[in-house]
Amino acid sequence: MECSSSSNVPGGKKKRQNEAPSAEEDVKRRKTEEEGDEDLQRRPCGSAKVSVPLDRLQQPITAAQLMELLHFAALGKSRGVKQPSWCRLHHQRKVSRINVAIVDGVTQSLFYNHYLSMEHLRSSYTTRITFTPSSDDVASDIFSLEVPKVDFLSLAAPEEAFHEALKDHPVITTYGTQRRGLTAYLLSQQQMIKNHYPVKGLPGFEDFLCTGSDVSVTDDSPLYGLDCEMCQTTKGNELARVSLVDGDGNCLLDELVKPQNHVINYLTRFSGITAAMLRPVTTTLRDVQAKIRTLLPEDAVLVGHSLNNDLKALKLIHPHVIDTALLYRKEHGQKFKLKVLAEAVLKRQIQTEDQRGHNPTEDAVAALDLARYFIGTGPLQVVELHLEELWGWSLEESPSYTPEPTPSYRFADILQSLSRPVAFLGKRANVDLDLSHQRWYGSDKEMLSSFRNQTGHLFLSVLRFSSLSDHLKRSYVHRHHQQQLYHNVSAVFRDMCTVFSGPFPANFSKREVRRLFGCCGPVRKVQMWNTGVRIHAKVEFQMLEGAMLASEVLNGLSVSGQTIKVQRPVKESMLDLDLNLDALMSDRVNANQLYVSRLTQDVAEGRNVSVTVNGRLSDGKPSGFHPGRQTNGPLQTAKVNGTQLHPGTTAPDLSEESLREAFSPFGSIKSVTLPGIHARHARIEFESSDGKRAALGSSEDLLKNGYPTWPSMTPPHLHSWVGMATSRKTQDEEEDAADEQRPDSFNCSGIQRNQEVSLLNKLDRRLSRVFSSLPDGTLSVVLLLGHNSRGFDHPGLCLLEVKNGF
Questions:
Q1: Which domains does the chain have, with CATH numbers?
Q2: Of 123, 179, 400, 566, whose Cβ has the fewest other Cβ atoms within 10 Å?
Q3: Residue that wins the pLDDT comparison between 248 and 726
């Protein structure tokens, strides 16, 4: 299959004039680059922009490396911050704002699976680089990661100063003054025993079910809120309702439960449970135990208020718990009611008089938010902010007490000290930022509407889009979906890089096929097929350009009397090949770049073209290859400058010097990237697309000099994505297995796929509206988070652009 637009195919069968192209031809050739070029032509001189070396684009970046860029963009050299290690931000002082759009659950595989649908993302961002899978705390990291050694805060941060009277406060004596991760607030086994928690091995808990969570937890472990309501039976208090919420406050479980024994008091005033509500219920304690075990990951941390009572009612043992009744502790062991804490700390009314009993889901969310607030704010600030309304203390200022300012290196704190507003917008999240700078929304649509009304006032804004991730979690087993999607997209890309060729002479080997096709680009794999009559080969290139050149340069070549055909696979996955190739050629990340390979001497002579070798023209006499012409005997050899060249051997390797000499007449060259010492292909990046267009317009002349050319198509970062899967079989084994098992279309129902396409289109439009609302000079970052599942990492994608009047 060939690209549908013949005017965009260099070295094709259509004869080109040697003179300068006509205006009409020039317009046609511009179509493949115009999207990626107009912005560069309109870009004001000296405006801010991000550039990444081509070889560095082939390595993924981490959240910490992204923060290097954000810190430099916001503060620059004048504040002592260095350029990022992996890219350059030019004219940093012209960056007026920073916007980061975080998209949950979207992997690089999903992006490329729906590449044609993502019109804004693929056309508005000139830099695209693989982002390694990370935790859900990226938003928090953006605000909280420290900026290294900023000049205006060069003094080491002293111990936090606090009033002398607070040193005996029960919260301070228990947790100290420093802000720490969630593991600092987990109850130890001794504390659990002291506070009457069910503990494995203790008498009285023999028939309790363990959740199976024996792994250690970290500060990145997920939090889950839990609350139960009980009824009084002949055997004491028994479970009547249970609610479990995840870290975003989403309700995962809300079930009425049939008590095992006769109910003597429904405790309706507190529980909200009535006899009529429980009469049709058949769910048992064992049922909800099994559901909770299924819902909780191994490193889950349960949060609740007096959680020991809930676990006893559930007859569950769970080793990782945070109890908000103990976090916000009083003197002498007294505890605050959850209602009091919610009102004082969260400014939220729960368990109101107009409600009939407590709502366990509402209580579970309140406990979860109280824990996250305590962890994010730190014990000292919690005490200072709520000292009088919660603990009834008042501090008398003494003349000798002068609190020293505590310099902070946290990114958000530094920006706010410079009067640069920051904000997080999205679903409820564990973001290490003061609550007054967080705005939570129930949907992406609400968040976008709010953001567009205030974008001009924010210096650093972080938006979190969650709708698509929520859909994927509901529609599929997310881990299985991502792994299958990765294999599917990788296989489709391999199909796009593959050509079928033949027939070859009977004695033609796999090695000779590899050498023959290597003149078009690096060959990844060759498979030989012997039908008993003729020999054919399946040749898979590492890059799309190799396959495109092979179908143009080698198709019709005569190999020892056998005229070979070179053609693309014909299968369902290739139905949109021409559309995908056109989109990739017009991709802004490839706007000014040209792919160049080096013809082998014998292929060049077989095409009857002269080849410049060591500064001299070869005579172009046939030596064994002729398009459409029969020759007898095995492949012949040729001599170049006295050196014998065997079939498939090359003229001298490409070099930066020779490429600059050959291509600089077409325009100023920004960079030449060679993949190794003995390179046979290269990428040339021109300063503008005029140079690229001029080179493509002279592709026939360049081919005569041994330089097949093609517009760059393979995304420069792609190699970092393809090689990132972990804990896998050898690559060939895995790919062969994937080819055998993979259907030509993705294995999900048409309804599910249509929903996915619709949601991705909607997401792309919303991101486009975010971009359009940004002021000029804004560094725009779109972060597709990727997905991390046990034993397999699915990388994401980071897209970067400084908006400058387009």
A1: 53-157+407-496+714-806 (3.40.720), 180-377 (3.30.420.10), 498-542+544-713 (3.30.70.330)
A2: 400
A3: 248
